[in-house]
Amino acid sequence: MGMKTKHMKPDTSYLPVAWEYREVIEEAIENQSTGKIFYFCREESVCEAAGRVIQLKEIAKEGLFIIVDTDAKIRVDRIITLFGKPGAAYDEYNAYANACMDCLGGYDEDELR
Fold it and tell me: Which of 2, 3, 98, 108 matches a 20 to 30 Å C-alpha distance to 45?
């Protein structure tokens, strides 16, 4: 399946992830689960991949990645959801989605008076 993108947020340096995210990935590998994975990708977007996670792999100086049976390589700290379960970047995505609720809708404060 191809990737779809939505314009979102740029990629950042690798951040270590909590153990529970590794457990979810290891469980998906063990159960041979398939589905969709949403993640932040380098194209300043949210990308989507579908398939089965076949490997969890540490790449020196790059970070921890999942390898999908469709040859997609996704950094674990950039995963928003893995088969519908929150990933390490879920809170970042949620905060980005809610950020506009605090803004002025593109208007200056003076324009709203």
Answer: 108
Token output for 88: 């390490």
Neighbouring residues of 42: CB distance < 8 A, sequence distance ≥ 6: 10, 11
CA distances from 111 to 30, 101, 103, 104, 106 (A): 56, 18, 13, 10, 10
| pLDDT tens track for 71-87 | 999 999 999 999 999 99
Q: Which runs of E-coded beta strand occur in 42-103?
A: 45-59, 63-68, 73-75, 79-82, 85-86
Give CA–CA dist 40/38, Å, rounded: 7
In this prediction the pTM is 0.74
**Three-state SS at 99:** helix
Kindly report, residue by residue over 18-53, the tens digit of the pLDDT: 999 999 999 999 999 999 999 998 766 899 999 999
Region for residue 44 given its phi and psi (left: phi exceeds 0; alpha: psi -120 to 50; beta: otherwise): left
**Residue of 59, 77, 67 whose CA lies nearest to 17:** 77
